[in-house]
Amino acid sequence: MAAIELISPANKDRSARRRLFAAKCSAYLSRGIGLLIIDVVTNRQGNLHNELMELLGLEQVCRMAEQVSLYCVAYRPLSGSGEDRIETWPFTLSVGQVLPTMPLSLEAEHCVPVDLEAAYLEACNRRRLDEVVG
C-alpha cells in the first residue's frame, strides 16, 4: 500500500490544520505505508514536511529550509533490527519548472516511479476534453 497526498490551501490555512495533516502522514508511515506528498500551493506559506519531521521528533537535518514552500517528498518507512526509520527523497519545486519523477514505496524493497509531470499534463488534457465535451 501507498498514499499520495496533494497539499491543498486548506492544509496550510491554520496551525491546527497543518498539525492534522502531519498527524495523518505520520499515521501512514507508522503503519509502514509509503507516502508521497506534493505541495504546489502558492497562495499560502508553510512547509508541511517540516511539520511532519517535527511531529516525528526528527533532527533539524531532516527538515527543509524555512523559505521552501513548493516541494515534493517521497517517504519510505523501514523496520528492522529493532529500529524504525524513514528514508526521504525531498525535491524543491519552483513555478514553471518541470515536475520530477518521484519514487513511491509500495513496500521496503519495491518502489515505483511516479512521473508527476506526465500526470499533470494528462490532468490538463482531460480537463480540456471535459470542457469541450461539457
Description of the structure:
This protein is α+β, with helices and mostly antiparallel strands and 134 residues long. The chain has one domain (2-133). Helices cover 31% and strands 33% of the residues. It contains three helices and six strands, in the order E-H-E-H-E-E-E-E-H. It has helices at 15-30, 48-55, 116-133, and strands at residues 2-6, 34-39, 71-80, 83-92, 101-107, 110-115. It is globular. The mean pLDDT is 91.
Any idea what the shape is? globular
How do the strands line up in the largest sheet?
A: 1-2-3-4
Distance between the termini: 35 Å
The percent range for strand residues is: 25-35%
Can you give the helix content as a percent range? 25-40%
Q: What is the residue-averaged pLDDT?
A: 91
Give the beta-strand count: 6
The oligomeric state is single chain
Can you describe this structure in just a few lines?
Helix 1 packs across helix 2. Helices cover 31% and strands 33% of the residues.
Chart the SSEs and their pairings.
Elements: E1 2-6, H1 15-30, E2 34-39, H2 48-55, E3 71-80, E4 83-92, E5 101-107, E6 110-115, H3 116-133
Parallel strand pairs: 1-2
Antiparallel strand pairs: 2-3, 3-4, 5-6
Properties at a glance:
134 residues; alpha+beta; four-stranded mixed beta sheet; two-stranded antiparallel sheet; globular
